[in-house]
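Support request from a user on the community tier.

User writes: "When I paste my structure tokens into the form, the page sometimes reloads and wipes my input. The last time it worked, I copied everything first. Here is what I submitted, just in case something in the input itself triggers the reload:"
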């Protein structure tokens, strides 16, 4: 156990650690691949390069400058940023849309770099191992069944570890340290925290993603101001870069990208792939880069859809049936809404628990789709009617209104007279509420704005999306 003590580079303190630096790097490389596959990168090479350059500039000022640092903008509308072991930092396009300067971004990225240099994620992983929890995330029955489910992977479990208040205090301090060393105005971190607070106020009790994974250590702003007052940094000539930053995000997608699929109630539509699918109305639904699915109210059954390997439905179905540990029933050919399909019931048993399910493979366009429904054996019969209706609802999408839906985007507008966000919204109709426009500009709805100021607007049509 004594050999498991390690010195944290950012603090110089010795702490119990079961994860070595070498293991940290190995895990980080593996988890990075999972993050990219599960969430996806935002398709804007210029913006990606900008974030990489800023990240490297900040990391060079840290206590671990020689880590294989990577910085990525992920295609996620939530307001969040996170880091995983080994120097991998991710910024969502959602949080980029809500920030108003490069200095704000520098403090957020510095905060995430701090989680890496202080080895907070590695420490969380050590605590999980000590508690006997491991890193694997199970699905309904056990981790054995995870091979059949399109649920969150180990990487996503790790990146959403919740840090302690002490960790957050330390990451705030390090974020200020690194951004100050890179000559950014670290006082802008306060603006970020105020913005997060406004998001929470607008959404009621729901926390922004950042605050859900980065717990508020009491009065966060008061704590940050205390750090700023104790620092010896001179911010007189520090960089803020408001206009230059906002030009970087001009044209960026805002909110949900409907081209990658969206729900109207429990019905799912995918304009790019041109299909539709209806889940049971009382099931909880979710859409990710690789999988769309739903879970029963009792959390004892799942329906999911994803692309399957193979050139035909029958070929994909046979490959599925051949998996070790799977007991599959008779393969049946079928036609679903004019599409060729192959179906088969299956069962899987692990650790004394049995899952029952139905698999359906459908040929459509150039793809083969795998529809998988499964649940605990004891209650599976109760879900059969709903499951069969869902599986057989897969159909081509032909509604041109839904096929042609486009994402909303951030656009910059230079004021030619003194006005407010409220008045501007009346003049230039936006598909989002006035409160949202005020939020992304970090002003109040009726704050007078002077001529020449650049403001962010959201343009486009209202999305045909329901929660």
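"...and here is what came back when it finally went through:"
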């Amino acid at each position: 156990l004594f050999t498991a003590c390690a010195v944290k580079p950012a603090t110089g303190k010795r702490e119990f650690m079961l994860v070595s630096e070498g293991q940290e790097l190995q895990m980080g490389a593996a988890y990075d691949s999972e993050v990219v596959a599960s969430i996806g990168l935002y398709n804007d090479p210029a913006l990606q390069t900008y974030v990489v350059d800023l990240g490297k500039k900040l990391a060079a000022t840290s206590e671990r400058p020689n880590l294989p640092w990577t910085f990525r903008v992920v295609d996620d509308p939530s307001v969040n940023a996170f880091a995983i072991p080994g120097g991998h930092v991710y910024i969502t396009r959602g949080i980029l849309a809500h920030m108003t300067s490069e200095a704000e971004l520098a403090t957020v990225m510095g905060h995430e770099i701090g989680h890496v240099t202080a080895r907070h994620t590695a420490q969380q992983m050590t605590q999980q191992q000590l508690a006997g929890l491991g890193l694997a995330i199970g699905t309904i029955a056990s981790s054995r069944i995870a091979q059949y489910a399109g649920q969150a992977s180990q990487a996503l479990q790790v990146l959403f570890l919740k840090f302690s208040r002490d960790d957050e205090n330390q990451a705030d301090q390090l974020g200020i340290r690194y951004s100050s060393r890179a000559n950014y105005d670290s006082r802008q971190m306060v603006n970020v925290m105020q913005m997060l607070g406004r998001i929470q106020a607008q959404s009621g009790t729901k926390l922004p993603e950042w605050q859900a994974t980065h717990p508020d250590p009491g009065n966060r702003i008061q704590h940050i101001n205390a750090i700023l007052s104790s620092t010896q940094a001179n911010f007189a000539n520090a960089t803020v870069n408001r206009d230059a930053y906002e030009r970087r995000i001009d044209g960026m997608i805002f909110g949900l990208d409907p081209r990658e699929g969206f729900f109207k109630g429990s019905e799912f539509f995918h304009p790019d792939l041109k299909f539709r699918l209806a889940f049971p109305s009382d099931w909880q639904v979710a859409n990710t880069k690789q999988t769309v699915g739903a879970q029963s109210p009792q959390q004892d059954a799942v329906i999911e859809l994803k692309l399957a390997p193979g050139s035909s439905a029958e070929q994909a179905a046979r490959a599925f049936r051949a998996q070790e540990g799977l007991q599959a029933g008779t393969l049946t050919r079928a036609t679903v809404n004019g599409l060729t399909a192959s179906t088969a019931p299956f069962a899987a048993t692990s650790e004394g628990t049995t899952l029952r399910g139905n698999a359906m493979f459908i040929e459509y366009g150039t793809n083969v789709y795998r529809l998988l429904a499964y649940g605990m054996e004891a209650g599976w019969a109760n879900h059969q009617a709903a499951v069969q209706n869902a599986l057989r609802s897969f159909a081509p999408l032909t509604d041109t209104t839904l096929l042609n839906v486009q994402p909303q985007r951030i656009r910059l507008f230079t004021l030619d007279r003194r006005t407010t966000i409220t008045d501007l919204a009346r003049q230039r109709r936006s598909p989002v509420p006035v409160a949202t426009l005020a939020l992304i500009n970090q002003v109040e709805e009726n704050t007078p704005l002077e001529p020449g100021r650049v403001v962010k607007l959201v343009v486009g049509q209202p999305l045909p999306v329901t929660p």
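Agent notes: The reload is a front-end session timeout and is unrelated to the input. Residues 77 and 256 are 6 Å apart (CA to CA). DSSP finds 16 helices and 20 strands in the chain. Escalated to web team.
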